[in-house]
Specification:
The structure is a single chain. By secondary structure, the chain is mainly α. It has 28 helices and six strands. The strands form two sheets. The chain has a four-stranded mixed β-sheet with strand order 1-5-6-4, with helices on both faces. Strand 2 and strand 3 form a beta hairpin. It starts with 13 loop residues before the first strand and ends with a helix. The N terminus is likely disordered.
């Protein structure tokens, strides 16, 4: 989703954590046939149709939209540049509405280019198209850079007077509020425009290098050359020798390119340090926290609470898992291993869709109806094919269109949970779109609310229907592992980024040192049940968030703990009209902060006990597993 702090007006996809199937990474080109567009059970899988955006990369409508946006952006700059202070409230409101229209046109074009690239990143033509559109969008939007800068230079009292006398301008109060968070970090107009225009040859170029490198990789596994996605998928195979071979292949593939990935990481970390210094951010994560509309101290409280809970969560669970697997110590390729009694029969795509929609419908017919649109129309791409982005994401595109979902459906129970998760994002994006392009975007800390809630609805429905104790335990263990991946693992990622960026300020880090930091945080978070082999030190290299969205990852833990607390309120039945209040929360988009959104449910994220309440849900699941194993 778009954030007002970005220099390029692009609505970005919401990536999802999926164990070691890294969200947002791109699979490699296979040297032998492996993915044929269908899961193991043979059922057909949908592919999306992007024609609701544009018919093709050479669609004349795309060129016409960009030409029109360029003309309108230039005219906008000529009409309003240096004039905002003298405008009435109504006139300023009209200017913001016009700005939104141009931004949405650029967002539509950029969304289309991103989705084309995600559909097949190994096609050189797609890469060129993506880069070309990004360069054109950046050039056009450079004419609009002045607008946010000049709005932020308006005196507080003068702006408040305009807001007080103009209902039309008051509609934009939340957007202005969020925009002005960045006032202390704003540079001169000339510097801001320079940074904006150089984005395509700076950070964005390094991002593309990362994506295309992974898209061109193959992973050798037991005589086969697999995509990165297929190799990572084998880390959850039932056969331990298959997992070990896949782990070795991934380590070798990334290890042979580790100097390149280290260079990308070092350059981007230094680039961030320079920009943070100019903008006077106190620490590496502060810019992300401002964009998420959350205080540094609130994030610190979350991170502290999770790290203090490692022993009662991940350490305790993985100790139990080692016993279930009959192992004295787990290796890193055992982390997502299925339990001996886990039912690994493939789940057909239609059955997966039914499970999710039924679960949504039992809570809210409105959610189920909106969710059903994604399957009645070609808004989902779940097929398996070379070159496609691995992991999963929901892309909101623009309010005048609709979201798209990308998954890689292998027919596993976890894939059903991923579908429930991404559909939650999609439904949230549809409801929030009512606010319009500028007001629909939620901070990342709230963007996970509907996705995690939808996943919990689906899990609870399936678990409550299961009567076999062994299958129930396997399902519960799978849920715990997903929650640990979302909370413990993501906070460990955040800790890794924090240590890396802090140390980078003292000089460039060797690949070996980056690997040492990675091993340090993994050992701390996963605990004594693991005996990490040296090759695991390369696994930081495939995590796309470190490249694309520094310090993004804590938002997953924030969202999971928030939803755990929210779901607890729902299960307790303590809040009347919970469904309607929940739908209102989703419809609010970016108009309300987390304190206001949670108040109707009696929750407060600034309360020190809030995070423990969310973590207690995970601990309670582990308690239940422990009791069933006694």
């Amino acid at each position: 989703m778009q954030c007002v702090s970005r220099s390029i007006p692009i609505p970005h996809p919401i990536w999802s954590p999926a164990g070691d199937a890294a969200p947002g990474t791109f699979p490699s080109a296979p040297r032998a046939p492996l993915d044929h567009g269908a899961p193991p059970d043979g059922s057909a899988l949908p592919s999306w149709d992007l024609s609701d955006l544009y018919r093709a990369p050479d669609d004349p409508a795309l060129a016409a939209d960009l030409d029109r946006a360029e003309a309108e952006a230039k005219a906008f700059a000529e009409r309003y540049g240096g004039q905002l202070g003298g405008l009435s409230g109504d006139a300023l409101a009209a200017a913001i509405a016009e700005y939104e229209r141009v931004e949405e046109a650029l967002g539509r074009a950029m969304s289309y280019a991103q989705l084309i690239f995600a559909g097949d990143a190994q096609d050189a033509a797609n890469g060129r198209f993506y880069q070309t559109v990004q360069e054109r969008v950046t050039a056009i939007s450079s004419h609009l850079v002045f607008f946010a800068l000049e709005l932020n230079r308006l005196d507080d009292k003068a702006l408040e007077a305009k807001l007080a006398t103009s209902p039309a301008l008051a509609r934009w109060r939340p957007w202005l509020r969020d925009l002005r968070v960045f006032r202390p970090h704003q540079l001169s107009d000339e510097l801001e425009r320079l940074l904006h225009e150089k984005e395509v040859t700076g950070r964005a170029a390094w991002n593309r290098l990362f994506d295309e490198t992974i898209a061109g990789m193959t992973v050798p596994v037991s005589g086969e050359d697999l995509t990165v996605s297929a190799a990572l998928n084998r880390l959850s195979d039932r056969d331990r020798s298959v997992r070990a071979a896949a782990a070795q292949g991934v380590s070798e593939a990334f290890g042979s390119r580790i100097r390149l990935f280290s260079l990308i990481t070092n350059v981007l970390a230094k680039d961030k340090e320079i920009l943070d210094g100019w903008r006077r951010y106190p620490r590496p994560a502060s810019s992300r926290n401002r964009a998420n509309m959350v205080e540094d101290e609130v994030v610190d409280a979350l991170v502290t609470a999770v790290r203090e809970s490692y022993p009662r969560l991940s350490h305790r669970y993985y100790g139990m898992k080692a016993g279930w697997l009959g192992l004295e110590k787990l290796q890193h390729w055992d982390r997502n291993a299925p339990l001996p009694e886990e039912d690994d029969r493939p789940i057909a795509w239609p059955d997966a869709v039914k499970r999710v929609l039924d679960s949504y419908g039992a809570f809210s017919p409105t959610l189920a109806e909106i969710g059903g649109r994604f399957f009645r129309r070609p808004w989902v791409d779940a097929a398996l094919r070379p070159g496609k982005a691995s992991g999963a994401f929901a892309h909101p595109t623009v309010p005048s269109a609709h979201p798209y979902l990308l998954l890689n459906y292998h027919g596993k129970a976890r894939d059903v949970m991923t579908l429930a998760h991404e559909l939650g994002h999609g439904v949230h994006q549809v409801l929030a779109a009512e606010q319009g392009y500028l007001l629909s975007s939620t901070p990342l800390t709230l963007a996970e609310t509907a996705s995690v809630f939808g996943e919990m609805l689906t899990f609870r429905a399936v678990l409550d229907a299961e009567t076999d104790p062994r299958r129930r335990r396997a399902m519960l263990a799978g849920k715990v592992e997903d929650m640990l991946n979302t909370v413990v693992r993501q906070i460990a990622f955040y800790r890794f980024e924090t240590l890396l960026h802090e140390e980078r300020r003292r000089g460039e880090l060797a690949a070996e040192r980056i690997g040492e930091i990675w091993m340090e945080v993994q050992t701390e978070s996963l605990g004594p049940a693991f005996e990490f082999t040296p090759d695991y030190r390369n696994y930081w290299a495939y995590i796309p968030h470190f490249v694309h969205s520094p310090f993004y990852v804590y938002a997953y833990a924030f969202g999971d703990c928030l939803v755990n607390a929210l779901y607890g309120v729902y299960r307790d039945g303590a809040v009347p009209d919970f469904e309607q209040k929940y739908l209102a929360l989703l419809r609010a988009g970016g108009t309300l902060r987390h304190k206001d959104l949670l108040a109707p449910f009696g929750l407060d994220a600034s309360d020190p006990g809030f995070w423990r309440r969310g973590l207690d849900v995970i601990s309670g699941f582990i308690d239940e597993l422990e009791a069933s194993s006694a």
